[in-house]
Design a protein that fits this description.
The chain has about 190 residues and is α+β, with helices and mostly antiparallel strands. About 30% of the residues lie in helices and about 25% in strands. It has a domain of about 100 residues: 2-Layer Sandwich (Fusion Protein Consisting Of Minor Coat Protein, Glycine Rich Linker, Tola, And A His Tag, Chain: A, Domain 2). One of its GO terms (cellular component) is membrane.
């Protein structure tokens, strides 16, 4: 057994040294041509001096009686106020507050400053205890669609939270002709 291991070790050392010699010579031959193809980079900098000549025509006796013309206003100065006005109207946002009350049977009474065109039906909810007031932030586009509804204050009952959030997302408001995105904070109170 020991004889076998020593013979195996000697043969492996011989093969490894032969292989490493072959790889080393191959790498040396592969990179020997690099110096021929890539000469060192030489940079020469020439400093050129330019003489500045000023044409001086001094004539102290002549004085112009004409007033200098004011510079013409640039196009950018003319367009900047107009663009600011236009973008202010595009990104104008109005934040309002509203109240809503829910009674037994799923009846919702909304008091908003913007007319509601469509109120989705709300199924009556069965709860063991009356939920606390719930606040929702609603983002409404100028065409009356609700694009975002976020719960700000939870009622304590996930079933009620989900039902109110779905109700608010399906509301349709009256369209307006101005480019205004309206954020409405609605406080829902539950009456039993």
């Amino acid at each position: 057994m020991v004889k076998y291991l020593t013979v195996s070790l000697v043969i492996n050392l011989f093969l490894f040294s032969l292989y490493s010699y072959w790889v080393g010579s191959a790498l040396r031959n592969a990179f020997s041509d690099v110096e021929k193809f890539l000469p060192p980079l030489k940079v020469t900098v020439k400093v050129i001096k330019i003489r500045e000549e000023r044409n001086r025509k001094e004539n102290p006796t002549k004085v112009s009686s004409r007033t200098p013309t004011p510079p013409k206003p640039s196009l950018l100065e003319d367009l900047l106020p107009m663009l600011e006005r236009e973008y202010q109207t595009l990104f104008r946002k109005i934040v309002t507050k509203a109240k809503a009350s829910m009674t037994k049977g799923g009846k919702v009474k909304l008091s908003l400053n913007r007319a509601v065109v469509y109120t989705p039906p709300l199924k009556p909810l069965k709860v063991n205890y009356p939920p606390s007031p719930l606040e929702v932030k609603v983002t409404v586009l100028p065409d009356g669609r609700v694009i975002n509804a976020v719960l700000l204050k939870r009622s304590g009952n996930p079933k009620v939270d989900r039902a109110v959030l779905n109700f608010v997302r399906n509301l349709k408001f009256e369209p307006i002709n101005e480019p205004i995105i309206q954020e409405i904070y609605i406080l829902f109170r539950f009456k039993f």
